[in-house]
Amino acid sequence: MGQLADLAGGFGEILTPVNLLWVFIGCLLGTAVGVLPGLGSAMAVALLLPMTFVLDPVAALIMFAGIYFGGLFGDSISGILMNTPGNSTAIASAFEGHRMALNGRAAQALATAAIGAFTGGMIATVLVVFFAPSLAQLATRFGPAEYFALAVFAFVAISSVVSDSAIRGLAALGIGLALAMVGIDQPTGTARFDFGERSLLDGISIIVITVALLAVGEVFHVASRVGRRDERKLVPTKGRPWLSGREFRQATPAWLRGTAFGLPFGVIPAGGAEVPTFLAYGTERRIDRRSADPQFGKGAIQGVAGPEAAGNATAGTAMGALLALGLPTSATAAIMLAAFQQYGMQPGPLLFERSGDIVWALLASLFVAMVVLLILNLPFAPLWAMLLKVPKSYLYAGILVFACLGVYAGTGSTFDLTVMLALGLLGFAMRRYDVPIAPVLIAVILGPLAEYSLRDAMANSGNDASVLVSSGITIGLYILLAAGVGWTIWRKVQERRRVDF
């Protein structure tokens, strides 16, 4: 029961006026950005990352925790009211949620989404509190070969899952690894890919890369579509922002089933919550078909409840994988890892020992953030929807200005602004040709770890390659990777067959 004592200490750190304010600000900003289509929690964290140098680690990380979950809460609002999900993780819940809105049940759909997100996130966070320290102890058995296997697992799994084309996913992975290799090679002192520019000898800052690819690339993408008519309209919300007893009884099993789908996917590098949300949606649809009065296609409340719980459960256990293993399983988690590294902390097996006070304060802040987000979203979701009326020209111009100010404030270098704009154009091209962003960010974050672990393992074994598969952990990871890739290939083949027929 030592976890409960540690968690109580974390609550003691969090429940101060200043830290509660940072949690509230994070929830507020995360929800506001999540509501806006095309943005999301990853962009919110990326934009705010350079602005937190003046904060102490606890304040910065608990604010990011609020943003992390706040973005997921906000993503569904635009999907339900406008049929334009703020992020891909909210696509599944938008199917039935928007139909509920068109039938005059928008307020109930938003309430279902808010309670589902609260349920999934809260259950996942409880499991993280009890099992993350044990997972961290298990991870102390990891050596260079195991860390290299873990990085390869993340690289291939995310590249194969997040894109319809494995070639595009691997291309994104290659881009990320190339960016990670820019600068001085630490073991040899050799300059790599600096093109004679001294400013590149220290490498490209992760802040510059994330802001450029996520924020600047999205701004350029939206600017390229100016003038196209958008026929989607905001559905007004009316009625009670809570659920009746009958609706609550309908949604409760779906919330629990969705949570069960989402929990394991937070630990698997699958690029985010897209897979579990669609699995939860498909399960609720199959169950509904057996009922006497099927509701899917008419606005089924279960079609909102299941995916919302799954998405937030995935986010919760993804935080556990990040803290205990140092493994980012999504783009947002990768940026959170960069936030830890910004303060000289490396998530992984030793984090609970070296920075236990900060870790338990962060975990306590997740519980507080869930409650704050439920308060912000259950009655006030229609007010958040007003952000959807902000003209895109003003909104994205402001994002670009904020991105430039953030990068310059963080590094004080005009050269970094030039690199940011260049990478922003790369991000625009990737969106134009449907190349996923997540593998780039994962490769940039884990690339140095993979390179260092590979060199260390080979040096310690006299360049014997068999050391890479010499333990049960490495063999297990590679078998799990092969099974995951095989399942992904089978699933995509089945989808193509259904399309053909």
Automatic annotation (TrEMBL):
<feature type="transmembrane region" description="Helical">
    <location>
        <begin position="435"/>
        <end position="454"/>
    </location>
</feature>
<keyword id="KW-0472">Membrane</keyword>
<feature type="transmembrane region" description="Helical">
    <location>
        <begin position="138"/>
        <end position="158"/>
    </location>
</feature>
<feature type="transmembrane region" description="Helical">
    <location>
        <begin position="466"/>
        <end position="490"/>
    </location>
</feature>
<keyword id="KW-1133">Transmembrane helix</keyword>
<feature type="transmembrane region" description="Helical">
    <location>
        <begin position="360"/>
        <end position="387"/>
    </location>
</feature>
<dbReference type="Pfam" id="PF01970">
    <property type="entry name" value="TctA"/>
</dbReference>
<feature type="domain" description="DUF112">
    <location>
        <begin position="20"/>
        <end position="441"/>
    </location>
</feature>
<keyword id="KW-0812">Transmembrane</keyword>
<feature type="transmembrane region" description="Helical">
    <location>
        <begin position="321"/>
        <end position="340"/>
    </location>
</feature>
<protein>
    <submittedName>
        <fullName>Tripartite tricarboxylate transporter permease</fullName>
    </submittedName>
</protein>
<feature type="transmembrane region" description="Helical">
    <location>
        <begin position="46"/>
        <end position="70"/>
    </location>
</feature>
<feature type="transmembrane region" description="Helical">
    <location>
        <begin position="20"/>
        <end position="39"/>
    </location>
</feature>
<feature type="transmembrane region" description="Helical">
    <location>
        <begin position="107"/>
        <end position="132"/>
    </location>
</feature>
<feature type="transmembrane region" description="Helical">
    <location>
        <begin position="204"/>
        <end position="223"/>
    </location>
</feature>
<feature type="transmembrane region" description="Helical">
    <location>
        <begin position="165"/>
        <end position="184"/>
    </location>
</feature>
<feature type="transmembrane region" description="Helical">
    <location>
        <begin position="394"/>
        <end position="415"/>
    </location>
</feature>
<dbReference type="InterPro" id="IPR002823">
    <property type="entry name" value="DUF112_TM"/>
</dbReference>
